[in-house]
Model the fold of this input.
Amino acid sequence: MLKIWGRTNSVNVKKALWCLEELGLRYERIDAGLQYGIVDTPEYRKLNPNGLVPTIEDHGFVLWESHAIVRYLAAKHGAGKLWPLELKQRADADRWMDWAFTFQAVFRPVFWGLIRTPVEQRDLHAIEEGRAKSAALLGHLDAALAGRPYVAGDAFTMGDIPIGCHVHLWMRLPIERPPHPHLEAWFARLLERAAYRKVVDIPVS
Done:
């Protein structure tokens, strides 16, 4: 059975878990990272020298980096569905997967500032700056979704997974959000998916 190391409240672990759930794959999850430790042990560092999560082991094959994991699982088990067979559609999905890291870098001060930083230590200027930059970036995604239900076209693909996890945090944090009607409609479509509700739409922590 496939094993995955990582805690359920990690946005990057959620990407892999959501993919696994969409594909209907059986897996064993081992808590790791932050309060669970493990990631600094010699045994774990042999699997993932970066000491980060997630990491998977699939019948002896070890892989880390969340987007690489999503691509691997989609290609192996979801060809023609999560993994688009048409080259341009797959490139489009890849584009939005990589763009998720662009958004994550800007949004990180907002999430960490509001959720994982004590109130008395919060940098309100950095939080607001990150919020404004994140809103502007999401305007690009909103525009792209104006003519399509999902990021790579008419069908849900691996391209929706990484940014779908980050947008969940954006939508659930107690922050001011400008109207992004197409993004909001896409988020509502994601919430209709049982796998998304199970492993992504959980309390933010």
Q: What stands out?
A: The first strand starts at residue 2 and ends at 5. The CA atoms of residues 168 and 201 lie 7 Å apart. The beta strands are 2-5, 27-30, 55-58, 61-64.
